[in-house]
Structures are given as structure tokens and as C-alpha cells.
Amino acid sequence: MKIFFTIFGLFLTPTLFAANPTPDYYRCINRVGGEWNYGRAPNGCDASAFGEDRTLLSNYPKLIFLDLENRTIERNRYMEEMHALIREAAQLYILKRNPQASRQEIEYWQKLVTATADQETFFSHYRSASDQRLKMMRGDIGHGHGMMQVDDRHHFPAIQQGIGWNLMGNLVYAMDILYPQWTRAPSQTCVGSSTNYEARMRAAWAAYNGGPSKICRFTNPNDKFANNDKGFHSKLKSQSWKKYVADLNKEASVDVGCLIENREDCPPPGDGTGSQVLEHTLYKQENFYCVRSGTKLSCVEESKNAVCLDTISKLNSLDSRTLPQHNLVVEIVDRHKICSQFSSSLLKVGNFLETKQAIFLRATPGGGALGVIPKGEILEVSDFEIRNLDSKDRYYKINLEGKIGYFYAGSASSYASWAIKSDQTAPIPSQIARMGEKIRIKNSAGINMRKTPGGSLLGNIPKAKELTVLSYIIQGSQNYLYYMVSYNGKAGYVYSGFLEPNSSVHLWTERVR
């Protein structure tokens, strides 16, 4: 562990430092003992030796283990807070280093960082001891500083800068050491593959503990420090921390994004600024599902569309949280647009498809069977749903001889063997008029023509007027239908009702056959 990086976000070239002759328990004042258990690993020394107590009380009020409280209750409280912090910081870190990281890689990276915190100190960092002074965990005869045990003999400049003392600095500094070994591990013979995640985690930790040359140390049972690797592997397999964490998806009580950037103006929790609305996290408010991207909150209606928000902010899961108070800019995004971006092979409402095998037609995507759709059937897509963030399973709603329902149409990798787009024109009954076909206005008051769907008014087209369709657009949760037409020398859009759940198109326009 002799590599030094600056704090997260700057990522300078690593610099090697010679070992520093730091004395045991360097700057350790009022040392107290503890126990080898979560939150209280011995030993602890006054945190004020490396920074002001008021800073940590302001930034990390719920991440201090309180010795004078009931030990069992306090351990559970502390562990839930610390687990949330580590989990969010690890995800944010890897996505900054590798925005294309898969969900599986993110999950195992989080597991690696969490198991490292367990192995090093049982998640111990700050503690309010029985002498009522704030302590910082010190290990290895005082040379290891904080939760991730930044060693003052090999990382003395970092210790002098307060990186060992500051909780987020301590965690990020450790990830700066772990991450190069994480990316290097797949090229080693003891790992061999980027998806051999257990070996990859063990290799990265072995290099973290013993230095880059020890990356495959865990395969040698005769190594002097083989027990270290066995201990880490045990923590990795047991994940004992979980029994102290009631909510494994709890959001951190601090602004991880702000603290990880080493800013000094991080707002406290619940201040209403939106700082606690996390990126890569799904939120729910009434019937809307939202994700944060920068200063914007992007939302869709209905849970079935939530998966497509992954396009805007890569989601860690589809488990939603209640949306906290915020002042972020809110935009309602169109499900058709973002779902097409989420899965480019998804067929659109109004497309015709051809089935490539016999498939069950069901009342709902996961409901009871209504019948079987024959192979080679040509059908019109009247709605869609995508499920599963990784496989992107798609379901299409269709009308098969009066039976209306959904069928499974494969995943992003297998869809071609289930149903493909058909280039045929309209061989079956359809409510939607295609380019070149004619429609007749049916609404008694006529229909307003607008520059864009829902945009500025261009005029009114009276009832019974026939128009040639230039194109059509489907938008919104109810599949609102808009036709682009030309009238009185102007081109614009007319609203023609919605397709879901029960069509109202016949009240607005009709196809002229």
C-alpha cells in the first residue's frame, strides 16, 4: 500500500513514497480500548489530533458510534448508517472511474469495498468514547488510521493532509488503491477473466494488503500472510455485516456526492435542496417514478415505465424509495422516447411484427393464458412493457382476432427468435393511419392544429374535413396519437385521442379507406 492518489475527482499520477519512520501511536492522545466487533474495533485516539471535531460533527453526525448508548441498539443503528455510506460511495466512485461499468461489476465492487472495511476494522472509524471525547480508530500499533487503515509509515503525506482522519477521504483513498488492482486483476493468471468476480475481489484485496506484487498471494497457502487472505475470504463469503443492517437499500444520511468531492459546503440531511436525492436511485411519488441527473429530476408515469429511466441515470435496482423534499427541476419524460433509447431493438406502438415461433397470449405480461399466437402471424403493436434492467425482457400488447393481451417477445439478446419487425403495410385492421393515407375529422368542434404536439396553435380544422397523413407520433403513458397534416398551406399536428387503456381515437378521427 505505497501508492498515493489525491482525493476523488482529481486522479493524479500515483507517486511512490519511501517508508516513513513514524513512531508507534503517532499523535495518539487519550487512547482508549474497544472490542473486535462492529463500530468499536480497538484502539481509538482523540480525533482532534488531525482535525476539528466540529467538522466531523457537522459532516458525519450519524456516523459516530456512541459508547454510552445501549450497545446492541447502537451497533445496529451505526451499521445501517455506515453500510449505506459505503455502498453509495463505492457505486459513485466506480461510475466516475468507469461510466460503462455493468450492474454486475458495480455490485461486486461494492461488495469488495464493504468486505475491505469489515476486514480492516469492522467498519470502525469515529467513536464517542466513555470519556466523551471523539476518537478515531487506530490499528497496527497505531500506524493504521481510520476504517480503511491508511498506514502512516507508507502514506505519511496523506495522513498529514487529514485524509486518514476524514471519513470520506479515508474511504476514497482506500478505493484509489483498490481500483487499479481491481482493473489489473483480470489479466492475472489467478483470475483470468473480468467476470471471475470472487477471484477478482480476492486479488484486489491481496494487493491492497500486501502491495501490487502480492496480487495472487491468495492462491499460495504457504505465504507468510496467507491467514490475512483467508480472513478476508471469510468476510467476503459470510457478509456478517448484513445481520446488523435492517435496510440494505437505505440511503445515506449524509450527502455522499458532495463529501466525496471534498467540498466544504455540503448541506446537512433534509435541508430541502435535493442533495439527498441520489443519482442512480429510483424514487416514487404518487404514480410517478423519478431519477436524478445533475440538477434535474426526470420522471415517468407508472411503474412499468420506470426501468427505462436507466437511460438517464444508470439504476442500481428497481427498488424505489420515497422521494424526499427537494428543489430540483422536474421534467416529465416521454416513455416512448426513453424506452427506445433503453433498448434500441424495442418495437414501437404502431409497428407491425411477425412472430417467429408459437407464443402464449396472456391477459397481462405475467397473467393467465388466453390462447396461442401462431408462428408467422402479422400483428400490430398497441402497447409495450420492458422488465428487468439487464436482460431487457419485452412484452407487446396486440389484438389477435378480438383477443387482446400481451406476449413475451424475448430479451435484448434473444428477441429475433421471438418476434421481429414486419415491413408490410397495413394488412390487418388498424386504428392508426399511415403516411399517405387519409383521415376524416370527426370531433364536432373540429380539431386544433398545432406546430408541435401540444405546442402553439396554428388554427382549427373543421369536422368532416379529409386530410392526408404526412406522419404520426405516439406519446405519453396512454399512447396519445398525433397526426402531422397539411391544411391551408400550413403543416402541423392534430390530436387524435389515446390508444390505452381503451381507445378514444374513433371520437376524433377515422381512417378513410
Key structural traits:
513 residues; 4 domains; SH3 type barrels; alpha+beta; 5-stranded mixed β-sheet
Outline:
The protein has helices at residues 53-59, 71-97, 103-121, 156-160, 167-184, 197-210, 226-238, 256-260, 335-342, and strands at residues 3-4, 15-16, 44-46, 64-66, 126-128, 134-139, 144-145, 150-151, 283-285, 288-293, 296-301, 321-322, 329-332, 352-355, 359-362, 369-373, 378-380, 383-387, 393-400, 403-408, 419-422, 438-441, 447-450, 457-461, 466-468, 471-475, 480-487, 490-498, 509-512.
Structural description of this entry:
This protein is α+β, with helices and mostly antiparallel strands. The chain has four domains: 25-244, Lysozyme; 270-342, no CATH class; 352-422, Roll (SH3 type barrels); 438-512, SH3 type barrels (Roll). Helices cover 23% and strands 24% of the residues. It is built from nine helices and 29 strands. The chain has helices spanning 53-59, 71-97, 103-121, 156-160, 167-184, 197-210, 226-238, 256-260, 335-342, and strands spanning 3-4, 15-16, 44-46, 64-66, 126-128, 134-139, 144-145, 150-151, 283-285, 288-293, 296-301, 321-322, 329-332, 352-355, 359-362, 369-373, 378-380, 383-387, 393-400, 403-408, 419-422, 438-441, 447-450, 457-461, 466-468, 471-475, 480-487, 490-498, 509-512. A hairpin with a 6-residue loop joins β15 and β16.
